[in-house]
Amino acid sequence: MSLNKSDYICMLIYHYWPDKVGGAEQSCRRLAAGLAEHGYKCIVLTARTNLLYSRIEKDGNVTIRRFFVPEAWVAVLRSIVGFFQSSKTQSNDHSNSPSRPKEPLRKTIGLDVILSRLLKYWNSLFFMSGVSMWCFWHRKRISILHVHTSDWIAGVAGWLCHWHGIHALCKESTFPALPEYTQGIPFRSALNMWRKRLPFIAQNPNVKEDLVAKGIRQDCVFVIPNPIPICGIERHEHQSPFVLWIGNASQGIDTKGLDVLASSWERIKHECPSATLALLGAGVDDKVHSLFDSQNSNGVEFFGYVDDVNIWIKRAWVVVLPSRREGMSNALLESMALGVPVVASNIPGNKYIVKHDITGRLFSSEDSSSLTQEVLKLIDSPDERKRLGDSAQQYVVDHYDKSSVVLKTIACYESLHKGSIPGC
Hints:
Layout: E1 8-12, H1 23-37, E2 41-48, E3 56-59, E4 62-68, H2 71-93, H3 105-137, E5 142-147, H4 152-164, E6 168-172, H5 188-195, E7 200-202, H6 205-213, E8 221-223, E9 242-246, H7 253-256, H8 258-271, E10 276-280, H9 286-294, E11 300-304, H10 310-313, E12 318-321, H11 330-337, E13 342-345, H12 348-353, E14 361-363, H13 368-380, H14 382-399, H15 402-418
Parallel strand pairs: 1-2, 1-5, 2-4, 5-6, 6-7, 7-8, 9-10, 9-12, 10-11, 12-13, 13-14
Antiparallel strand pairs: 3-4
């Protein structure tokens, strides 16, 4: 029995556009748009994290259905409290009276952790309930439920798959695979059991191997990469050496190897005083600033989250990714798609994309000196930058073009719907 285009293909993900999004959310949006282009009715089931977001709206030909979570009201309350605190601070600035001693940081941090876990608990509970009820009422119209993160939401998909008879699968983009659930998630043991009963889409063979090692049947794991749009944007290198890092720093300085980059940048700047390093992405906060300040690093610009990274990528001389852990980096693929040479740590996820001295350069993930040498070589050689950039661009066109990834995903859906994949 093949997929019926009048039925629903549902994407399940907690955060979604227009929230500040990462790789999973970008890939979900691209895949949903690609499925809609092929005539499928695609619905994204996501959380309503902001009261300004509509409960139901259209993103092109894709329908977005949002479910209420308490953090939407918390965001409003924080804005109100922030406004009054700001007003109070301004009034205190004009007063000569001494300021009140602040509460000990230890107590404040402890309270923040407790409140954060409580909020996470109720957010997940509300989201589970809303999605479960919606899927129950529409169970006869749902062809596929595709969950885009392997956290607790994958467990919810596994439960819906079992009890409502819905065909479901999960995309695994993290490495190591199947990360443990954090504190504050209800029914953690049950959800962990249910997610392991799903078929999986792994982004590369390394992720598949790790999934199999953790108990997922080999015939239930399919290797399909993220869809990458091939843009017709021309490169316009910045007039002076411009090095770019893109990532989600909130995943951890250690995970993203920012300590290695900070150490390397001090030497790069010494050898090439005109060079600039730009850091883009969520989580580029005071901790990241302090890290680079501790290395006496100059020429570093902190931009945080930006809506369109392509504007920055096309100006870069080199894009660096010193991560210690990655599944498959969209930042690498998008940079390569624009013909920008990349220097990446030689971890499994990066080595699958970057072929050393063919589509980019690799360095030992702990060796800041090696990173320094590779970046300086590319800064000093325009011909080498062009050679690697052109080769990388062709590689992405051949293997990661959005249209071919969408077709592979549809074929996976067909196999799941026909029952030729064990599991849900």
